[in-house]
């Protein structure tokens, strides 16, 4: 597992189980000034639990002597994962008859696991007839998500009209719903009601209702961060560009431009992505009051590498909103512009997008778009890995990668925190269980020349493959696998392991008295960071709360035990 955990405790459920005093926030990576205004929003104190790489473990203290790196041993203990079904839905038309459902893959592809062909970097000795360029093209064209579906024993379900009916007599037919709604229709159909209202507790869906409208839509993200800055402080939430939402902020934009004549502006579609629909303006005089757009201060003092601007693309997994639990992947990608940066206003226009926009869709057609075709090289040309960036900073004594990573994580967590409450309310309104949902986000962060991180945007449909650089596709394959591990779709039977975890937790009800904590209690507390004074409340926890604690413990095991704990 390669995740870093951030658990923002907002719920009475976990306040009674794993929370600690509010004062811990000042020592955590997220440094919010909690005040009485916050209680008006969530009616809870804020607690942040953070974990660092110093907590590397090989064995679980709860499940003794189980090495989560030993997949064969896990299969012996818990059995192989059962065959499962995933409904892959690529649009918002959802309710159809059972007769329309067709199977794409009925084998579950156990051969994919046994051979592990999709799980390793290619052995060039076996591909001697292929050039590096041909291998790179193969990686670019691979459907990595489908490969992981097969590796984790999923059958894929779809219909001729891409319609899915979840109301089968056998509610176990569909285990996972993988929903992909294109950005152009997010505004009007972000969370299809017929789908979400029929998701049962034993289903799992990859998209929180309203999340795209709140964090992907640029005007909503700006409003949410603006609201947080009012309730906490402008300084704490000063990590997002000044944003003018059209049409309501048009007059303010014109006045702002007059007051700040040196400011340049970037105009973006509210529901845009991949660099499409963007316009650059040296001043606000030519900007039209288009209600489909926002206008932002353009960053004219970015940190540059070899004279070029870049953006850090990170991957964030949200596994719970109540409490808010966030995992941030360490190994993202650095996306470079292909033209050297300058601030000359005469070049700040749509003809020079490759100087100011870093998306692959904008730059890959340029003659100077470069990347390594060697899967083991991640620091050449227009695409680097995030780890390569850390090496660049540290090897050249430019800036502390540890400090910068801490500050980047800080703005990512605060940005997601700003949308949590509204998304949670909509989730509870529509769904039988908030625990049925998870969300993988791609987030973009820019750096100023003083290394201040600026949260640019989030994407609820991050591209999981299709990169020109082979290392990037391989890293995305690992990202998908590690995401599936955390949400419970492992090679072994994760349900059996969770039952084992649950039974161990329930044993505490009889193994400790009212005054003393047993050795087993202490072992559990070291695993899930439970305050000793509050641990005994597990004995009074209800079933739903217990299930959440079991899932949290399962995630923590895979976050810390399975791997060196240096990435996700």
Automatic annotation (TrEMBL):
Residues 1-19 form the signal peptide. It comes from the Eukaryota. GO terms for biological process: microtubule cytoskeleton organization. The keyword Ligase applies. It holds the Pfam family TTL. The keyword Nucleotide-binding applies. One of its GO terms (cellular component) is ciliary basal body. One of its GO terms (molecular function) is ATP binding. This is Tubulin-tyrosine ligase family protein. It comes from Heterostelium pallidum (strain ATCC 26659 / Pp 5 / PN500).
């Amino acid at each position: 597992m390669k995740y870093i955990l951030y658990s923002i405790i907002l719920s009475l459920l976990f306040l009674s189980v794993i929370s600690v005093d509010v004062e811990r926030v000042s020592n955590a990576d997220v440094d919010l000034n909690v005040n009485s205004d916050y209680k008006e929003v969530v009616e809870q104190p804020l607690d942040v639990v953070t974990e660092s790489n110093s907590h590397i473990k090989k064995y679980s203290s709860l499940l003794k002597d189980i090495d989560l790196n030993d997949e064969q041993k896990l299969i012996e203990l818990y059995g192989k994962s059962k065959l499962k079904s995933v409904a892959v839905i690529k649009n918002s038309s959802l309710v159809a008859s059972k007769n329309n459902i067709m199977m794409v893959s009925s084998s579950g592809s156990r051969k994919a696991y046994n051979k592990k062909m999709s799980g390793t970097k290619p052995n060039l000795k076996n591909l001697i007839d292929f050039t590096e360029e041909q291998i790179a093209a193969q990686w670019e064209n691979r459907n990595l998500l489908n490969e992981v579906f097969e590796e984790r024993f999923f059958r894929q379900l779809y219909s001729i009209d891409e319609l899915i009916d979840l109301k089968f007599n056998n509610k176990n037919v569909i285990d996972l719903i993988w929903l992909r709604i294109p950005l152009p229709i997010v505004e009007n159909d972000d969370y299809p009601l017929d789908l979400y209202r029929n998701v049962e507790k034993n289903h799992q869906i990859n998209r929180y209702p309203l999340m795209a409208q709140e964090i992907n839509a640029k005007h909503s993200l700006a409003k949410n961060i603006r609201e947080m800055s009012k309730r906490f402080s402008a300084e704490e939430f000063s990590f997002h560009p000044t944003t003018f939402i059209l049409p309501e902020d048009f007059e303010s934009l014109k006045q702002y431009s007059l007051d700040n004549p040196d400011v340049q502006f970037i105009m973006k579609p509210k529901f845009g992505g991949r660099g499409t629909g963007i316009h650059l303006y040296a001043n606000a005089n030519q900007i039209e009051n288009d209600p489909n757009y926002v206008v932002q201060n353009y960053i004219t003092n970015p940190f540059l590498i070899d004279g070029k601007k870049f953006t850090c693309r990170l991957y964030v997994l949200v596994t719970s909103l109540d409490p808010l639990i966030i995992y941030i992947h360490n190994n993202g990608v650095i996306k470079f512009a292909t033209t050297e940066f300058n601030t000359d206003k005469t070049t700040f226009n749509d003809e020079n997008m490759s100087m100011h926009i870093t998306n692959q869709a904008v730059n890959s057609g340029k003659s100077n778009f470069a990347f390594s075709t060697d899967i083991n090289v991640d620091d050449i040309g227009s695409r680097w890995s995030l780890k390569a960036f850390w090496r660049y900073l540290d090897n050249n004594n430019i800036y502390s990668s540890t400090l910068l990573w801490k500050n980047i994580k800080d703005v990512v967590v605060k940005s997601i925190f700003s949308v949590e409450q509204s998304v949670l309310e909509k989730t509870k309104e529509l769904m039988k269980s908030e625990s049925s949902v998870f969300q993988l986000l791609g987030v973009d962060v820019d750096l100023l020349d003083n290394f201040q991180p600026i949260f640019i945007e989030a994407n609820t449909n991050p591209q999981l493959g299709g990169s020109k650089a082979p290392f990037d596709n391989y890293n995305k394959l690992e990202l998908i696998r590690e995401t599936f591990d955390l949400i419970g779709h492992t090679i072994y039977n994760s349900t059996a392991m969770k039952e084992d975890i649950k039974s161990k937790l329930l044993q505490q009800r009889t193994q400790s008295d009212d005054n003393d904590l047993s050795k087993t209690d202490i072992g559990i507390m070291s695993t899930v960071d439970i305050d000793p004074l509050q641990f005994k409340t597990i004995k009074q926890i209800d079933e739903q709360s217990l299930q959440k604690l079991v899932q949290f413990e399962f995630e923590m095991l895979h976050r810390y035990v399975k791997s060196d704990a240096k990435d996700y």
